[in-house]
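Section 5.1 Outputs to date
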Amino acid sequence: MHKRMEHTPDWDRLRAFLVTADTGSYSAAARALGLTQPTLGRQVAALEEQLGLALFERAGRGLRLTDAGRDLLPEARKMGEAASRIGTLAEGRAHALEGTLKLTASDIMSAYTLPGVLAQLRTLAPRLRIDVVATNDISDILAREADIAIRHVRPIEPDLIARFVADMSAHFYASRSYLAERGVPQCIGDLQNHDFVSLGEDKQNADWLNEHGYPVPPENFRVSANSGIAVWELVRAGFGLFPMWDAAAEADPEMVRLLDGVADITFPTWLVTHRDLHTSRRIRLVFDFLIDVLKA
């Protein structure tokens, strides 16, 4: 595995790496990109320094990828494709994006994930107005209650278009105050000795956990809420455990990830729109943008 990047590579360095990998030499890559060879070489060297990896080695009169370079290449291609699409949006198409677009997602995602995503979108399309419908109910895309929906279940209706985004990683979390009083579960079996906070119906939550191999009876759910944000605040206040996706939970230093490597949970994420709406240039551009950013 290659070293984790401290910063995302910028587009110029990434493109220099990709074209050099494809052409096999700095001179050929420089010609393809309309750069001088020293400029291109500096871009590749800057990327290598940023990553702390050697990406190329000499092979006769050309270059070949190192093992680290070969490991990085598939992910770099994905990043390059995403950067290209975002760049296209930024370089002239975004100014035509205006009007209102309605986006629906769970209240947890709306609170902890969408602000950063929409900040990027506003930079690229400042005249576009976004209405966020933060709800744990499935808004009816077919009835045009929303233009785009972020879902954790793939829709089956034929008039909807769904694109898989990613599996979000999640774990059980609890507050430090709760664990200081009740102890830290060491194995899955220990979960039945702990309190949980439920989102909605206790039995539905318990059934889901048991179906996924976590033996938690309904009576362990000592408090519930119909809002994901309220549930998370109850967990933070020490009322019990809750399965939360890592990207949101890790931002809070008072929350502790439990049973890492033992109870690893994933939530599939889908982006959904109506088939007719996907023919709209405005919807299509935002739809593709959201996929790229959410994957990142």
